[in-house]
Amino acid sequence: MHQAFYSDDIVYSILKHLRFSPTSVKNVAMTCSSLAAPALDFLWSEHSSLAPLIMCLPSDTLEITDRTINLTGEPTPNEWARVRLNASRVRRISDWDPVSYNFFYPKLRVSGLVLRKLFEQFPPATLFPNLCAFNSNALEESCSDLMLVREFLSPALEALWLDAGSFSMDEMDSFFDALPEEADGLRELSISVDNGEMPTEVLEVFGELPRLIKLSLCGVDVLTRQALTNIQQARGLKTLKLAFPDEVSCEGGFRALEFSSLEHLFLIADYLPHCTYFLHHITTRHLSHITIEYTHPASPKEITAFIESLSASHQNHRSLKKIRLVDETRLENAATVIPLPSDVFRPLLNFTGLLSVDFLGIGNYNLDNRFINDIPNAWPHIQELKFAAFRPAKCGVSFAAMVSLASRCRSLQSLHLTFDASQPTMVPQGGDGMEMLWPAQTALRELHVGHSAVSEVSRMSFILGNVFPALTHLKWEEYYGSFDVENPSVPALIEVYNELDLA
């Protein structure tokens, strides 16, 4: 065996490269005895279901009906021992893993009877001695057994994903009361409920988990002073993800709370004002990434209020690196007119450290050259800039302004912007009065021109080819809004694409 394979780091790098091919990992395990142990450890390290473990039992003890595994006989102690051996290699029972996931061929399920048999043989703590992450949904029909879920808790557990939708208030109260003592090493906690209700005692536990850095709450009404105060008690919290329920309290009358360590914020809501309310009641110093998704179209006034709240809540404008705002109904409500002039977005120019700005389908952008020309000075290190629209508007951005923007932003790699390239392009001139193209920019790889009006008189292909020699992707919208009205510039854009030889 080559000397390099005696390095654990090299072996792990090879196995990680093969993670989407279980067969290849098995082949590595069979190559030689020295590679067998690390390959098997890697193969079993993460799963989203207990089915692969049960499938280690002899086929004559199993029966699969409607994708559900049942026992047809009683496995011997030695046969159960094989299950235990492989279970000892499992480190993460998570929501998804590359080995068992297949969109076209759903994974197997394990019947409740089989799971009861398994845990009669080996309690969870014995079966999974190296477990550091657990998702209760892996127990499938037994996931509502909170006592069984509790048996997976241990001081070594670092991540817990809990679907608490079927638990009573008393059950949740008891479970979370024990959490700080039985799983004090938790660094990541995710809780999902159905009705937005959760005992106050549950939320109070966050401050009693000293290592907690990532918290996700789905369906929990946290827009109250008490709930926000409880979340704030997690002093080391770096990542917070909140998916608001249909109905929220929006309790007012209290001062903004400081989330001093927060770096990543993800908010999912039916209505954008719920996210705005949350931002209005917190302050941050180190927030670097914020992603907002909502499922009902927001008005210009609501979008303006959100951006103003973001600016007000952030006490260190240089720390914000990425902002992403997504209207999840952008296609269904493409006919809804939501005019968004440049002034709506101008407060974002104060965030001078931005690397990525991504607005996806939130309205009818009506940007102007003045705003576009201000971007390079405000965001000198921008790498990704997207004003993606499914609701086209009157375009006030010229092709020349777009080229100037991308040329001056020397780190810009991906740009999505609608502009007007239907007229002759005003190219900069040198001192001798001759045309002098913008300085070449070699970072730009992707350009999406949205609903841009394009004509051959703009010399689009000539300018793009000379100013952006590294460009490899040119895209555009085929239709306006819905799929009823075709983009009339498509033929001209196809010609530009062919002239750039990007195929």
Q: Compute the CA-based radius of gyration.
A: 28 Å
Q: How many strands?
A: 26
What is the helix content?
Answer: 25-40%
Structural class: alpha/beta
* Spatial strand sequence of the major β-sheet: 1-4-6-7-8-9-10-12-14-15-17-19-20-22-24
Number of domains: 4
> Distance between termini?
44 Å
Number of discrete helical segments: 18
Strand content is 15-25%
Shape: globular
InterPro entries: LRR_dom_sf
Organism: Suillus luteus UH-Slu-Lm8-n1
Protein name: F-box domain-containing protein
Top keywords for this entry?
503 residues; alpha/beta; Leucine-rich repeat, LRR (right-handed beta-alpha superhelix); 15-stranded parallel beta sheet; three-stranded mixed beta sheet; 18 helices; 26 strands; globular; disordered N terminus; F-box domain-containing protein; LRR_dom_sf
Explain how this protein is built.
The protein is an alpha/beta fold and 503 residues long. The protein has four domains: 1-44; 47-144, no CATH class; 153-329, Alpha-Beta Horseshoe (Leucine-rich repeat, LRR (right-handed beta-alpha superhelix)); 350-503, Leucine-rich repeat, LRR (right-handed beta-alpha superhelix). Strand 19, helix 16 and strand 20 form a beta-alpha-beta unit. Helix 2 (22-31) packs antiparallel against helix 3 (33-44) and helix 12 packs parallel to helix 13. Residues 2-7 and 97-105 have low confidence and may be disordered.
